[in-house]
Amino acid sequence: MTLTQNIAIVTGGASGLGLAITKKFVQSGIKTIIIGRNEENLTNLANELGELCQYYVFDLSNLSGIPGLIKTIADQYGHIDILVNNAGINSKKSFVEVSDEDFNKVIQTNLNSVFSVSREVTKYMLAAKQGCIINISSMAAQYGIPYVIGYTAAKTGIEGMTKAMAVELSPDGIRVNCVAPGFIKTNMSSKALDNDPARKQKVMSRTPMGRLGEPEDIAEAVYFLSSNAAKYITGAILPVDGGNSIGF
Asked: Is the pLDDT of residue 4 over 50?
């Protein structure tokens, strides 16, 4: 599989699923720019992966700063070929306990920043008449999951935005797709499920493959959608979930 693109941005690229995506891109020879808030994590990963991994410390909830950030990246590297909108936060509370501030905080990072980053990156992709944007969704957009109303609203918005972007941008050479991870084995998810046996049993019982996914499974799907092997795919929502979204 050969990629014609060689400059990628991965938001939240130093931890969890973003880390696996960053490593896959770098291993494939793609210069990968990671954006995140934790400078220590970003620095350590860049040092580990070498010159193909560069980083910017930035809080994506600062929407007004996003145009300047993307311009800085484009000016430094000349072009942006791949954007992976992966960064996100979560807040687990019962519906009636979620304040407007709680809800808006999740929406700001998980949905509004995806719109703003995509809009700014698209300006450079339009000039080049090519580009690939991959958004990261969730099982929360495939069916109802309790206690994560803000996260669910944001990820459902991501999937709708993916389709609208694809229809508008694909005639200009920009493909837009979405990966919807199932339950993936990360430190955060493993801890959450191990502390909630009933929830873990429910997850496993409706996952036909009977196990959690690996972060690398998501990275491989993102890499595929970024590649020429997916050159006729746009507007797709790809579940990578061991069958969870269709499980009974």
From this structure: no
